[in-house]
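In response to the reviewer comment on reproducibility (Comment 2.3), we provide here a single inverse folding case reported in full, input and output, so that an independent group could reproduce the run without further information from us. The structure tokens appear first.
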């Protein structure tokens, strides 16, 4: 085929968009997303094909032998520009006040297409109210360009189906069925819709002002915990490449922002492994409900509560590492530091929008207070660092505060799909066999395959495990359990594709390319840790000696375990 006068050879069936990239030509796109189905809605990617009566969409049209394509003719440029101008005429002219300002695909594409003035008058838009019904997500239909990316990810990747194109023609809006609020339907608040939205039509609830207020309050002792997936993603918010490991700089930046202590959620990831591993052994040895399923992903928990409430007994009773940390911060840490728990303000930095919801659940107050006071996403932390004027890249590396900042490589890999399973089996194997595990890397559960399986022998007993990421893949395993055909002992489910490294609160863009880069960085973090097994964490051992006494003990049960709620779909 020939593209702009250059001959190119590509496999049959390749779309024009990819063929052009092979020729060094970048065709602009808007509704197209590399991880989702093709919709060809926006018509920004049109090209001229010799012999065709009309312009063709490069994102959907496959090439044929001998095809001659023009991607930069006057007709193509004018058509793209006109289509973009029509989109803009139906979009609020409010860029400075938009959360996606300077990180908006509509805005950047307008610049690339050379749009400097508005030929078309602003259309009369319907006045849409923002949907503020959830603690995690805000929907602003007035900014929606109807690209339907959010619909695709909600239905095809997550299998939730919380949002649809509602009405027809000029009245079309993307919303829950019946144009209801998100809080009234089975939305799991995962935020994957945010990740694929090209504009500011859906975004996370911004809690940065709450944190700034707490940091300026002299009566509060403000502490922060950071999830394992933050250290391999926050650099992207500050100009670094995807997968940059910036743990030490992140800690330094948080100290400069004013946090009294900077702690590591990896500490309670290690603690989760101890509690969850012993819970698995308890079920294996005493006829408990199997397969046991992990419970650290709040979007997954909300999904099973809505869609498979009859299977709630399969869930581990362990709280997530975030919530375990909050409970310990206001009990164990408060006691050791001599600070009244009501003076401790617990901030979590998480890759996940559903964590905002989790922190507010009524079950999460076992310390006598709300265990976690506020949750910020990676993007919110990036905004705060920029607002504080911190030159992130020039910071010298600093270490987490002890003792709640001591962790192992097993805690670090929690951030990637398969990580919880691998970390758990590192510990369970040695607890059961009293032997050192020689090959600690369980590569069978790594990677981006939707469902992964492995079998591990524990002192003569073969334990079969499965890992799923993305809720549509989780559904496959849940249907097996319902049908009685699941022969697994232990299942890990992560709500978001790729696990926490692909969470709804992570930097833009999050796609399979960035997921792979962050995933590689997570495993590098593990490899560089002096300790790589959760049960070897000296701070966790001390926690049991001084406070918790034993795994699955009375105090652990009270502070670190919980129960779940059967919910309806509407």
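Designed residues, in position order:
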């Amino acid at each position: 085929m020939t593209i702009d006068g250059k001959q190119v050879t590509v496999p049959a069936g390749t779309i024009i968009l990819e063929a052009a990239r092979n020729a060094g030509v970048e065709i602009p796109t808007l509704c197209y997303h590399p991880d989702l189905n093709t919709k060809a809605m926006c018509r920004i990617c049109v090209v001229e094909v010799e012999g065709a009566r009309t312009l063709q969409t490069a994102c959907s049209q496959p090439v044929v032998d001998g095809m001659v394509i023009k991607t930069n003719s006057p007709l193509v440029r004018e058509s793209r520009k006109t289509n973009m101008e029509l989109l803009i005429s139906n979009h609020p002219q409010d860029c400075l006040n938009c959360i996606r300002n300077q990180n908006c695909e509509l805005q950047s594409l307008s610049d690339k297409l050379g749009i400097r003035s508005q030929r078309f008058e602003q259309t009369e838009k319907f006045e849409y109210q923002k949907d503020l019904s959830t603690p995690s997500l805000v929907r602003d239909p007035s900014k929606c360009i109807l690209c339907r990316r959010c619909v695709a990810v909600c239905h095809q990747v997550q299998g939730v189906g919380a949002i649809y194109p509602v009405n027809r023609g000029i009245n079309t809006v993307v919303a829950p069925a019946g144009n209801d609020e998100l809080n009234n339907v089975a939305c799991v608040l995962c935020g994957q819709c945010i990740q694929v939205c090209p504009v500011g039509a859906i975004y996370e609830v911004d809690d940065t002002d709450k944190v700034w207020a707490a940091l300026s309050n002299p009566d509060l002792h403000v502490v922060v915990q950071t999830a394992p997936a933050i250290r391999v993603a926050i650099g992207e918010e500050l100009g670094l490449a995807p997968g940059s490991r910036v743990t030490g700089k992140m800690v330094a930046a948080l100290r400069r922002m004013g946090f009294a202590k900077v702690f590591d959620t990896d500490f309670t990831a290690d603690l989760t492994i101890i509690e969850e591993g012993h819970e698995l052994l308890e079920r294996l040895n005493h006829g408990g409900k199997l397969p046991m399923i992990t419970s650290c992903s709040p979007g997954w928990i909300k999904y099973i509560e809505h869609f498979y409430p009859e299977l709630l007994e399969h869930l581990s009773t362990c709280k997530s590492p975030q919530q375990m940390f909050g409970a310990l911060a206001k009990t164990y840490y408060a006691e050791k530091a001599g600070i009244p728990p009501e003076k401790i303000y617990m901030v979590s930095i998480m890759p996940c929008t559903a964590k905002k919801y989790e922190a507010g659940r009524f079950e999460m107050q076992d310390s006598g207070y709300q265990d976690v006071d506020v949750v910020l996403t990676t993007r919110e932390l990036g905004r705060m660092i920029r607002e504080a004027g911190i030159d992130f890249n020039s910071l010298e590396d600093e270490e987490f505060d002890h003792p709640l900042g001591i962790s192992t490589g097993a805690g670090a890999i929690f951030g990637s799909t398969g990580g919880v399973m691998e970390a758990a089996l590192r510990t369970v194997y040695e607890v059961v066999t009293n032997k050192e595990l020689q090959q600690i890397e369980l590569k069978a559960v790594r990677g981006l395959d939707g469902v992964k399986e492995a079998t591990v022998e524990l002192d003569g007993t073969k334990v079969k495990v499965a890992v799923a990421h993305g809720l549509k893949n989780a559904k496959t395993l849940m249907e097996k359990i319902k049908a009685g055909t699941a022969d697994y002992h232990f299942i890990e489910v992560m709500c978001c594709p790729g696990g926490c490294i692909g969470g709804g609160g992570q930097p833009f863009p999050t796609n399979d390319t960035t997921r792979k880069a962050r995933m590689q960085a997570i495993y590098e973090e593990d490899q560089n840790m002096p300790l790589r097994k959760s049960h070897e964490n000296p701070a966790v051992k001390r926690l049991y000696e001084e406070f918790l006494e034993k795994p699955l003990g009375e105090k652990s049960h009270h502070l670190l375990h919980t129960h779940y709620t059967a919910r309806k779909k509407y």
